Design the sequence.
């Protein structure tokens, strides 16, 4: 315990908080697993969007061939047939005003949300209708395919023992050591084992094996709505904090995550330079 305390730099208070939190959610977690066998029918897509970003401030409003990036993502999400509703969740009035301008429903959320999952959870609580599945749609991939959104929804519907589903695609060898490209390994039944910013699996040569089918995690993910309410109560975990990946908190707490493999050329936008790259690609493919 003392080793964990020093590693996190939070002292005994953090340990006490963690133990209390675990005790507090134990009953809720047990009840959730007992009730998770019902069919999850209604799904809502939520696009978390924040203005402040260390690498690209105002990213959701960046113009991509004449349209804000958030609009392009919303338009793609609206094409998914499994979604009953699509909303944007933001803490910024500029983003909200922009989204209302092109017809999107907007839910205002707190600036204190630590990540997209927490923002989705807050937005879910403010929605008038009840939903069984919440899809967290990353706003920085404006070319997301609606079929992938449908895929993660159906994966969660078909796996009642999972609380979370996500998508992966083939990792390009040149992205093997890029920490912004999150890697994933799955078991033979299609459930996630681990996510990392480093190359996984890692072989003895210390180099990318061109023959190995490495997997790249795509940002889209869906949650059972009951689990999404439990998620913020789960204490931070060592692996989550070390890798800065929220998916690891789910796995470290013993929950199952279903993973689907898709053929998708990921074009996420992390920096202003990525905008020019994606615009060139869209012109090449005649996407307006």
Sequence:
């Amino acid at each position: 315990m003392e080793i964990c305390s020093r590693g996190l730099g939070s002292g005994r208070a953090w340990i006490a908080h963690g133990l209390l939190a675990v005790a507090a959610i134990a009953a809720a977690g047990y009840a959730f697993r007992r009730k998770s066998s019902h069919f999850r029918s209604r799904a809502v897509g939520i696009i978390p969007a924040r203005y402040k970003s260390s690498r690209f401030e105002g990213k959701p409003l960046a113009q991509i061939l004449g349209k804000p990036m958030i609009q392009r993502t919303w338009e793609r999400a609206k094409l998914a047939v499994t979604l009953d509703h699509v909303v944007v969740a933001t803490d910024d009035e500029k983003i909200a005003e922009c989204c209302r301008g092109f017809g999107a429903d907007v839910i205002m959320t707190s600036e204190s949300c630590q990540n997209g999952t927490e923002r989705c959870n807050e937005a879910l609580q403010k929605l008038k209708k009840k939903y069984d599945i919440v899809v967290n749609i990353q706003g920085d991939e404006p070319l997301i395919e609606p079929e992938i959104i449908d895929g993660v929804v159906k994966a969660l519907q078909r796996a009642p023992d999972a609380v979370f589903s996500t998508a992966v695609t083939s990792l390009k060898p040149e992205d093997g050591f890029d920490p912004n490209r999150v890697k994933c390994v799955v078991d033979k039944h299609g459930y996630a084992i681990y996510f990392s910013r480093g190359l996984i699996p890692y072989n003895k040569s210390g180099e990318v094996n061109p023959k190995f089918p490495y997997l790249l995690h795509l940002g889209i993910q869906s949650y059972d709505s009951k689990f999404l309410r439990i998620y913020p109560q789960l204490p931070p975990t060592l692996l989550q904090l070390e890798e800065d990946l929220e998916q690891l908190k789910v796995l470290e707490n013993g929950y199952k995550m279903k993973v689907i493999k898709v053929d998708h050329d990921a074009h996420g936008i992390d920096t202003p330079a990525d905008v020019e790259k994606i615009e060139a690609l869209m012109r090449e493919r005649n996407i307006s």
